[in-house]
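Structure ticket #2291
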Amino acid sequence: MEKKPFWNGPKKPMNSGPRPQNGRGRFDRNKKDKPEHAVNDEIRATEVRLVGDNVEEGIYPIAKALSIADAQELDLIEIAPMANPPVCRIMDYQKFQYQQRKRLKEQKAKSTKVVVKEIRFGPQTDEHDYNFKLKHVIGFLKEGSKVKSYVFFKGRSILFKEQGEVLLLRFANDLEEYGKLDQMPVLEGKRMTIMLSPKKQKDQSKKPKEPKEPKTGNEGNDDTK
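Resolution: structure written out below.
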C-alpha cells in the first residue's frame, strides 16, 4: 500500500488573508445590501452638512466629517443627497436602517385601504327593495367603507332621470346619520351616481348628562308650618 508523504514543515495559519481596513467602528457594506443611502467613503460630495444630537451642526469638509464619525466609532450617513450641500448624520448604520424600517412599517399601518361598495337601483325601485339596500348600506358605512350608489337607466327608462335623482337624494337623506354626501347626483351615460363617505360614530356608551334642576332661590327655607 502506497504511503502518503509526511509534511513536517510549518503549518499555514487559518484565516491568514488580509483584513479590510476601513476604520474602527465603520460600516463595511456587504455586496448583497441595497445601496439605499451612501455611507462613509461612498459619499462623493466635497463638503456636507452635519445634523444630529451628537455633533455640532454645520457644514464640514468631507474629510473632517469622516474624521468626526471615526472618533465616535460611528458611520457617516448621507440622508439628503439632493440638498446643497448634502445632509449627513453620524450614527450606527445598522441602527439607522432599523429606524427606517420601523418608520415605514408605522406609516403603512396608518394608511388604511379605502373600500368602496356599490349599490345599484332601478329608476322605479319598490319600497321593499329600497329598505333592503338601505339596511345593507348602513352596515357598510358603519364598518368604514365608502358607498357608491347609482341608478341605472336601461333603454327608454332614461326618461325617468328626475325620478332617479329624487330616489338618490332620498337615499342620502335617510343615511344622514351614518354617511355624508360627497357629491350631488351626477348623470354619466346611463348612470346617475352619488358617493357617500362614512361618518365617525359617536360613543354610545357615554350617557348624556342629565340636566340640572333650576335653582329657585328658596333652598334651605322651609315654608311648611
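Closing remark: Confidence is low (pLDDT under 50) at residues 13-24, 203-208.
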